[in-house]
Structures are given as structure tokens and as C-alpha cells.
Amino acid sequence: MSLHYYPFVNRMIKLSGLRKTVSVSNSQIHKALFEKPFITVSREPGSGGALIAQKVAEKLGFELIDKQIIEQIAKSTRKRKIIIRGIDEKARTSIEDLVHSFLNRDYVSDYKYIVELSKVILTYAHKGHVVILGRGANFITPDSKGLHVRITAPVEIRRIRAIKFDNLTAREARENIYKREKDRVNFIKRYFKKDAKRSSYYDLVVNTAYLNLDDAADLIVEAFYKKFSKAERYLGLFKG
Q1: Which of 122, 36, 116, 129 is CA-nearest to residue 79?
Q2: Quick check: pTM over 0.90?
Q3: CB count, 10 Å around CB of 110?
């Protein structure tokens, strides 16, 4: 799907400017910009979060938003997808950013990446009826218009799954889980100043230690139905 987010960004800026001159609340802005609800899924490596997000999208007839984010950022920054994929959900220090900006002509600064990431995620959220995977989407989008979910599992179970499904040795699985988890946690901490593991940032935390993927997806779908009434779920459905 070709994503055109500039009209949405312009509308958001216009509404934000309007707020300065008249009494316009955040809830009014969110209602104007986000007619259809959406779901964000944060996940620990090996918890099954990506597959669960896909199943939730299928059960609700929503679009799963994952690789599209990289494609859209690559398009807007005019960089190759492999470049964007290399920095996706990873934190960088200011020194690293400065050094790479001088030495690598293909480098994308963390500021540019976060700005473009926010634009893309907000536009997909505005589109509605989507399941957005990872990348701090719950910290970018409004709480009132999205169901924010965290998928977790004990680390030993996640390592066993990595060994079984990713065909890794015990050592490789341990290192893989540790590195990916560290990258994601540091990414959220650096750019959103939040602790990704804090349960109060989510509407629902699902522990997949004893749940299969379908059961976990069903819980999320049920929570979505509970948070949004039928009218809210289908508001704007026939507006395009």
C-alpha cells in the first residue's frame, strides 16, 4: 500500500495550531484524527508476539503493519530498506550518531528516523483497523483510540522456543534473546523515556507461557471488543 501521510500530518498541525487559539482538548483532536480504532502490540523476543499480532489481524480482518514501516521510512528518507532495517528498533548514542553521520553517506540520524517513524505510525493509526507491531507504537498513538497490548513469557520458555523454532543452539538462543531484548528496551528508553516492561503502559499484558497462539489472539480480540463498542469499532468504516 502506498502511504500518503503528508495530508494527515498537515491536518494534525492545523488542529494543534487551532488548540492555541480556541479551547480544543486532546480528546477532541484525537476524535477528529482517529475515527477508527487500532491495536498496537509490543512483544518480548520469543514470546510469539509477531505471530499473535498476525492472528489478531486475521481474526478482525485488519491489516498487520510491520515491514511496511521500514518500507515507508526508506521511501521518505530515500534510503535503501537494508539501511533502515539495520537501525530499526535500536538505540544509538549521540556520539555514535555524530560519527556515523560524518563517515557514512547512507546513514539516517536517530532524530530523522524517529520523526519519520512517528509520521508513519500515526498515519496508519489514523487509517484505523490495523494491528501495529512494535517500534513503540503505543507511546506514539493516543491511548483512547487504540488497544495497547504487551506479549510476554518467562525467559527460559522464550529460549526454548528459539532453540526449537529458530533452530539455534542453547548458547545462540540465549545470546539472540538477550541482544534483541536489550535493543528493544534501550530503543524505548532512549527515544520515549519509558520502561517498555512496565505493565501500566498497556491495556492488556498476555503471558504466553501456557497459552497457544490462537488462545492469546482470542484474548486480545475480546479485549478489543470490551474497550470499543460496536459503534466505535465501525465508526467511519464507510467513509473510506
Answers
A1: 116
A2: no
A3: 21
In whole angstroms, what is the distance from residue 174 CA to residue 3 CA?
37
Q: Domains plus CATH for the chain?
A: 36-239 (3.40.50.300)
Give the Cα separation of 44 and 230 in Å (integer). 31
Q: Judge whether 185 and 173 are in contact, CB under 8 Å.
A: no
List, for residues 187-239, the tens digit of each pLDDT value: 899 888 999 999 999 999 999 999 999 999 999 999 999 999 888 877 644 44
Q: At what angle do helices 155-165 and 170-192 cross, to 10 degrees?
A: 120
Q: Would you state the cell numbers that stand for residue 17, as one nine-digit string?
A: 495550531
Residues 6+ apart with CB under 8 A from 4: 123
Contact between 100 and 196 (Cβ < 8 Å): no
Query: Which residue do the cell numbers 503493519 mark?
Result: 65
Cα 142 from Cα 97, distance rounded (Å) = 29
CB 52 within 8 A of CB 41: yes
